[in-house]
Amino acid sequence: MRGREVYVAKVARLPFVSVNVGVLPTCQKEIAKRVMEIDIPRLEAESGLKIKAEHPLNQSSYSGISAEKLALTALEELFLGLAIDPEWVDFFRLGSVISHKIDENAIHAFAKVVALRAGMKRANSLTLDKACSSGLMAIGLAYDAVANKGAEFAIGGGVEKMSDVPDRLVRFGLTNPFDGRLMAALADEVARDLGLTREELDDYAHESCRRAKEWQGIHRFIAPVKTADGQIIQFDEKIERRAVDRKVFAKAQRYPQFAEREDSPKCEIVTPLNSAQYADGGGVVLLTGKKGLKKLKLDPLARILAFAEASGGTPKNFILKPEDAVGECLMMAGLEWKKLSHIEDNAAFAVGPVSLMKRRGIERDRMNRHGDAISHGHAIGGTGGALVVKAIDISLQDKDEYYAVTVCNAVDEAPAMFFKNPRA
C-alpha cells in the first residue's frame, strides 16, 4: 500500500463512556425464574411464534442515543471549520461490530446512511465489521484509497454502542467460536505459556489507570456529546471510575472461561481489572494528499508511513499478533523497533502490551504512555478510530517523531498503522 504520500488532515473522537451490564433487580429475580421454567418449546409449537426471554439491556450515559447520531456527532466535529464541503469526500469507511446489527437505524447500509446524513453524497461508503480492529481497518482502507486509488479526501474510523443491547449479544463478540471460551480465557492461556504472572499484569493495569487519570483533561480533539438528559460529556468517563489503589487489583475476581456455564472454570491470572471493560465511543480521521492539504488550508497532523495486517491460524494467539503487524510496518518503512517513540496498543488484556514490552525491550513510557483500553474502556468497533486520534494527540504534545497504533482482533489477527509526526 505505498503510492502517493498520505496525511492526516483533521481528527475527532467521542468521549468513551462506561457501560453497565444489564441485571435484573432482586425483586424481579423470582418472577424471571418462573418465566424461565415455562415450557417455551411447547408454547412455540402450539402458537407458531418464536418466544424469547431476554435480560435487561446494558446501560450507559449514551443510552437513548443511536449509533448513527454518535457517528454524526463525530463527523460534525471533523467538518467544523473545514474549507471544503462534505460533498468533496470521495471515500468513507466506518467500523462497527454490534451497533449496525442491532440499531434499527443502522441495519441497512449503516456507513452509507451516515455518509448521506453528514452531507457526503459522493462518498463510496462501507461498514467494516472486523471485531476489535474494525475502526483501525477502516482507516487503513481510507489510507489505501488516497495512496493508491485516486481518492482526494477519505474518511475512516469507527463508532460503537455496547449499551442499549442485551449483554448476551456483546458476549458473543468476545467469545472464541471454535471452543466457546471467552477471549479472556485465551489471553490467560497465552499469559501462562509465556510465564507472565498475575502481579505483572496487575502492575501494568494499575499504572495504566494512574497515567490515564493524570492525562485526563489534557487530551484534545474531543467531539462533545449531549446525552438524552441534557448532560454534556467531554471526558472519558471510565477513567474517573477505574480504581487507582494497587491493593484493589490484587483482590479482583478471576474471569470465568465460559460465559454461559455456571460451573465454568476460572482464568488463573486474567481478571476484569487487568482487562478492558465495555464502553461506548469512537473516532474518525480525514486523510488526504499534499494537494488536498492546500485546498483545506491546513498543516498536517501526521503522515502515514505504512499500514499492515498480520494473520495466523491459532485463535489464542490473537493477543500476540500486534507484534507481527507493527514489525511489518517497520520493515515497510525501513526502520527498527528502537525508532518507535510510542506504541498505542489497544490492551484489551494487559497480556498483550506486557508481552510485547518484554519481547521487544520496550520501556513502559513508550507503551500506552497515557493509558489504554484498560483505563478508558473498549468500544470494540469504535476503539481503533479513537486510538488513532489519541496517538496523534500524544505525538503532537510529546513531540514523538515515529509512532504506531495497533489493535488485536479475534481470531488471531491484527492490523497496525505507522505514523510520522511532521512537527517533531
Please characterize this protein's 3D structure.
This protein is of the alpha+beta class and 424 residues long. The chain has one domain: Thiolase/Chalcone synthase (Peroxisomal Thiolase, Chain A, domain 1, 3-Layer(aba) Sandwich), CATH 3.40.47. Helices cover 36% and strands 18% of the residues. It is built from 16 helices and 12 strands. It has helices spanning 26-36, 40-47, 67-79, 99-102, 110-117, 134-148, 167-172, 183-193, 198-215, 237-241, 246-250, 290-296, 321-333, 351-360, 373-376, 383-398, and strands at residues 6-20, 59-60, 91-95, 124-128, 153-160, 225-226, 232-233, 279-288, 302-311, 342-345, 402-406, 413-420. Strands 1, 2, 3, 4, 5, 8, 9, 10, 11 and 12 form a 10-stranded mixed sheet that branches. Strands 6-7 form a two-stranded antiparallel sheet. The longest helix is centred in the middle third of the chain and has 18 residues, at 198-215. The mean pLDDT is 93.
- From the N-terminal CA to the C-terminal CA, the straight-line distance is 24 Å
Strand content of the residues, in percent?
15-25%
Shape: globular
Main beta sheet: 10 strands, mixed
- Annotated CATH architecture: 3-Layer(aba) Sandwich
- Mean of the pLDDT scores? 93
Percent of residues in helical segments?
A: 25-40%
Count of DSSP-assigned helices:
16
Order of helices and strands: EHHEHEHHEHEHHHEEHHEHEHEHHHEE
Number-wise, the strands total 12
Helix-and-strand structural type: alpha+beta
Cα-based radius of gyration, to the nearest Å: 21 Å
CATH-assigned homologous superfamily: Thiolase/Chalcone synthase
CATH topology label: Peroxisomal Thiolase, Chain A, domain 1
Contiguous runs where pLDDT drops below 50 for at least 5 residues = none
The CATH class? Alpha Beta
Number of domains: 1
